[in-house]
Specification:
Number of domains: 3
Mean pLDDT: 92
Structural class: alpha/beta
Low-confidence stretches: none
Strand order of the largest sheet: 3-2-4-1-5
Strand content: 15-25%
Order of helices and strands: EHEHEHEHEHEHEHEEHEHHH
Largest sheet: 5 strands, parallel
CATH architecture of the largest domain: 3-Layer(aba) Sandwich
Distance between the termini: 73 Å
Radius of gyration: 27 Å
CATH superfamily of the largest domain: Tetrapyrrole methylase, N-terminal domain
Length: 279
Amino acid sequence: MQARHGRLFVVATPIGNLEDVTLRSIRVLRECELVLAEDTRRSRTLLTHHAIGTPLRAFHAHTKASVIDEICARLEGGAKIALVTDAGTPMVSDPGAELVAAARARGLDVEALPGASAPLVALCSAGFVASRFRFVGFLPRGGKRRRELLEQIAKDGDAIVLFEAPSRLGATLRDLSASIGDREVAVCRELTKLHEEVVRGTPAALSERFVEARGEITIVIGPTVFEPEEPPDDETLRERASALVEDGLGAKDAADALAESTGIARRDAYRIVLEVKDA
């Protein structure tokens, strides 16, 4: 069905290498009548590299609410407008949420174009085996909120991805050392750029290596590795099986409960339960 109005495109842009942009994103940036950019100077470099002549307008954390109203009015009038960030995907530790929320509230079409994202590139480059991860963005610079977040990170067993300014990297690594100990982390610097560097180690060791740092920094905290518990010995398994049977559980339910509580295979649990019942 034909749209009644224009559309706001949320466009991911390269985090370093100017070739890391999709063909679809290039087409949309050319077709739009305006590109809203956090830093027009940085975005102009990307547009010039790909021969895109669409006008740029600054849109950042300090943009007034009246400008958001103006942009929404243009969208209602049929305009196609793109929103980009300095690097990566808009809305990830980045201004733009208020505009998208305002557009959604007015029933306007919003279309997000996938592309480069520093957290995902860092997670892949770090090489940790992690089926889940948590993104926390920038840590608070200090105070209670910083301490509380570091405590949460220490308790979280999943991989953690965060951003940090190069001038604060050493302090953050020292704070991580105090909170997570020798849990391995990776410092990912200047991802996709000429001087890309990914270094893994303990926070304490990396804090000595990165006394001074330059460029864009992403930190990946590896997941907690838990050593599997040894299953109980045969005598203990039989005692637990006997207790389950005495509680009135049938062989199947008793085997399920025994397997779940001890970590042994269900077929082994069922065998033990039958042996106990026969005895």
